[in-house]
Structure prediction request, 64 residues.
Amino acid sequence: MPFINVRLFEGRTPEQKRAFVEAVTREAARTLDCSPEAVDIVFEDVRKSDWATGGKFWSDPRPE
Prediction:
C-alpha cells in the first residue's frame, strides 16, 4: 500500500489537487503494480512563513 505525503505551499485549488491525485494514483498503481485503491495520498499545506530554503523564508521578499 503506497502512502504518498505531499507538502506544498497553501493556495492550490481543490481542482488542482484532484488532478494531481488522479495522475499520481494512476502512475503509482501502474509503476508499483498495485490497485489504485491501495494508493493513499495526503496533502500538507504549508504557509510560506513556515518554509525556508537556503536560510530564507519563502515569505521573505525575493529579488525579481
User: Anything to note?
Assistant: The chain has a mean pLDDT of 96. The CA atoms of residues 11 and 45 lie 8 Å apart.
